[in-house]
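pls design
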């Protein structure tokens, strides 16, 4: 049986960032990433990911925005050096006030939020027209100059290359079982791997793990469509209103997304394509007639009731951890949360309450029960 210090199940943003943070904190750690399918098979395979700290219709600043940005930027820079293609498009994120409700919300966000200096500005209609002539008329826009777009598939590819160079082992595919045999053992048909620590980072599938069936996670399907534009759209920032547009290159853009809480299967469908066409037509009415839909993609987000990630050690199973719930903010949250988890695993330091499993009363209840059962 091959032995590791930590096994990570799941090779999405959560799993890869955890592997990186672990080996960067202790280069002697022997880490295995076990991916059931392929890297980017889950939600992390999104063709283009927006990095937007002004979240939701109220444009609220996300949890620990500055630290999240700092860590993501460092990682993007490092991985860019390992990639042949341009991983990051640094053109900001525009949040157009396309109706009065959004305009009011965005003005309040500017007034009441302590945005770091230089992150956010208000653009007037004529300034917007000048920057994005084909955008729907609006009464102004919040422009997040700090925002960017990341080509996630290339980011993941470079990430795997970096982790392999750092000594992390990758294994792919095949059915397996996980058992607690003193150490955590992952058994595939032919081989077995064991480690004292096991991290479940399998996105929305985390709840399918028998130890994590009580995890407060919702699965929300999202569809996205990719369009070719014969017009040069090189200066287009990412746009986020009710839905979003994320440029991929000078002639390609991604339009997202649907939020499907009830769905029959995980694949893209015609209804999704229709909705995404409509979003593009609404947001960029003058560009839309020239665009051609050239692809469609879907993924399942894992979200928690308060929209923050969820991490921590199991209430009864020592050495078993979970990292899930990245929702729609996988890029921004993944590194900072992984860093906290790596410190928690290696140094037993407490996790911030806001992302801990035990901020949810059901999880705390289960922990109490497990403690009582273990009392002599
Ligand atoms: C339509 C859409 C648009 C999005 N847009 C953005 C965006 O603009 N910006 C942004 O930051 N985020 C975006 N996201 C969200 C982001 O992609 C997710 O938050 C993030 O990718 C989740 O990462 P994860 O590693 O937790 O899960 P996943 O990416 O789902 O990774 C889980 C991995 O585990 C593997 N797996 C499953 N079961 C097992 C098992 N039993 N054993 C081993 N491996 C297993 C899967 O194959 C998968 O590779 C979007 C998501 C969707 C669906």
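designed seq:
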């Amino acid at each position: 049986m091959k032995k590791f210090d930590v096994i990570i199940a799941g090779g999405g943003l959560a799993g890869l960032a955890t592997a990186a943070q672990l080996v960067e904190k202790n280069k002697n750690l022997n880490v295995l990433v076990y991916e059931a399918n392929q890297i980017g098979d889950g939600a992390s395979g999104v063709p283009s990911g927006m990095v937007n700290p002004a979240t939701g219709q109220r444009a609220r600043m996300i949890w620990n925005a500055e630290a999240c940005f700092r860590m993501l930027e460092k990682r993007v820079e490092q991985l860019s050096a390992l990639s042949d293609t341009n991983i990051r498009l640094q053109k900001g994120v525009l949040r157009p006030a396309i109706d009065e409700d959004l305009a009011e919300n965005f003005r309040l966000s500017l007034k009441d939020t302590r945005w770091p200096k230089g992150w956010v500005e208000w653009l007037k209609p004529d300034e917007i027209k000048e920057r994005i002539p084909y955008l729907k008329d609006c009464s102004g826009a919040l422009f997040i100059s700090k925002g960017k777009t990341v080509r996630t598939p290339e980011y993941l590819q470079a990430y795997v290359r970096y982790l392999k160079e750092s000594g992390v082992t990758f294994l792919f595919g095949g059915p397996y079982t996980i058992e607690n045999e003193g150490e955590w053992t992952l058994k595939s048909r032919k081989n077995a791997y064991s480690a004292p620590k096991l991290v479940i980072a399998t996105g929305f599938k985390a709840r399918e793990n028998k130890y994590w069936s009580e995890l407060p996670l919702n699965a929300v399907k999202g569809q996205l469509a990719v369009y070719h534009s014969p017009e040069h759209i090189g200066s287009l920032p990412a746009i986020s209103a009710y839905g979003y547009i994320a440029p991929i290159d000078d002639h390609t853009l991604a339009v997202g997304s649907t939020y499907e809480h009830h769905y029959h299967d995980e694949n893209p469908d015609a209804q999704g394509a229709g909705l995404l066409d409509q979003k593009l037509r609404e947001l960029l009415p003058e560009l839309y007639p020239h665009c051609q839909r050239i692809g469609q993609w879907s993924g399942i987000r894992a979200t928690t009731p308060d929209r923050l990630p969820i991490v921590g050690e199991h209430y009864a199973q020592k050495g078993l951890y979970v990292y899930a719930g990245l929702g729609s903010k996988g890029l921004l949250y993944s590194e900072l949360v992984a860093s906290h988890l790596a410190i928690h695993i290696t140094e037993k330091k407490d996790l911030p309450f806001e992302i801990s499993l035990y901020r949810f009363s059901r999880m705390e209840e289960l922990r109490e029960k497990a403690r009582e059962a273990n009392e002599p």
